[in-house]
Design goal:
The protein is built from ten helices and eight strands. It has an eight-stranded mixed beta sheet with strand order 1-2-4-3-5-6-7-8, with helices on both faces. The longest helix has 24 residues.
Length: 324
């Protein structure tokens, strides 16, 4: 039987945690404070957390922690690119763990959240119980080319890609990633908003196999679009602040940890072959390919797979805890 999201719940605590002289991040807790601690990492970079992310987890079994990553969502200041790198975010995650006095936790995430989860795990393997990862993104040049060049996803969605590059000056259309970054960091507020919404629309159109005829009316939250576009382009022009193939090369540091990897067969944002490549280097990882799903974390097959994964992981971790 297919599973749906768990019922809506309210946080039991919401706070802002100072993580640097210039940044404080939004942290919320829900579910069972005595349950299995789980951190869910949102996508983007810059996407922000959603109340529906809580609903992947059984609130009776899990102590659910969500954050808005530095510079986006409800974190302050937002949007903001200063002191904002992968390694700043990794340090922020560890500060949240220490602040909440959590010894170890399950780390889960989707899309860019998988990138950050892997980077955190590689840096702090002794603090991770296991992983649940949906839509693998490794921050490689292959992925940047797929998303933003004329030779990747554009070949499947040529009409959407024309819309995507149409906001750029003609001279910037051969390198849209650099062109967008230049526009998104300029002083022209009107241009920044237009570029942000076009960026968000391109990704939204690539993300779901269930929702068609997606238009600009679906990009209604200007703040969210600006956070997503500015911060994503900032990370991607800087190759996510790590060397090419870094996550694959360092996977040996976490290969002893169990992981459930969920990936849609028709994911047009994150490429399935990289999830397969990761699984083949990770002896305790299991890859589940959803036969009709795309990239979105809230398609029916994805919800079913993710919620079943959290249920099975809760049972597994409880057994491990009993046997210690």
């Amino acid at each position: 039987m297919s599973k749906s999201l768990y019922p809506k719940i309210k946080p039991i605590k919401q706070e802002f945690l100072p993580v640097s002289e210039h940044h404080e991040i939004y942290v919320e807790q829900s579910g069972n404070p005595d349950g299995i601690a789980v951190l869910y990492l949102h996508g983007g970079p810059g996407g922000g957390s959603s109340e529906n992310h809580r609903r992947y987890f059984d609130p009776e079994r899990y102590h659910i922690i969500l954050i808005d990553q530095r510079g986006c969502g409800r974190s302050n200041p937002s949007p903001n690119l200063s002191e904002n790198t992968t390694w700043d975010l990794v340090q922020d995650i560890e500060k949240v763990r220490e602040h909440l006095s959590i010894q170890q936790w399950l780390v889960a995430g989707g899309s860019w959240g998988t990138t950050l989860a892997l980077a955190y795990g590689i840096s702090h393997p002794d603090r991770v119980l296991a992983f649940i990862l949906r839509g693998i993104f490794l921050g490689t040049e292959q992925e940047f080319q797929w998303l933003y060049s004329h030779q990747g996803a554009a070949r499947f969605f040529p009409e959407y890609y024309r819309d995507f590059i149409s906001v750029l000056p003609i001279e910037d259309r051969l390198d849209p990633l650099q062109g967008y970054y230049k526009m998104l960091t300029c002083e022209n507020e009107v241009a920044v908003i237009a570029a942000s919404k076009a960026w968000a629309l391109w990704e939204l159109r690539l993300s779901s196999t269930e929702h068609h005829h997606v238009g600009m009316s679906q990009v209604s939250d200007t703040h969210q679009a600006i956070c997503m576009a500015k911060i994503s382009s900032h990370y991607f022009v800087n190759q996510c602040y790590f060397s090419p193939e870094y996550l694959l090369e360092e996977i040996s540091k976490i290969k002893h940890l169990p992981a459930i990897i969920i990936h849609g067969r028709y994911d047009m944002v994150c490429q399935l072959d990289l999830a397969d490549k990761l699984m083949n280097r990770w002896q305790n990882a299991h890859l589940q390919i959803m036969p009709s799903a795309g990239h979105s974390g809230f398609e029916k097959q994805t919800i079913d797979a993710f919620c079943k994964a959290t249920d099975s992981m809760a049972k597994f971790l409880s057994e491990v805890s009993k046997n210690k």
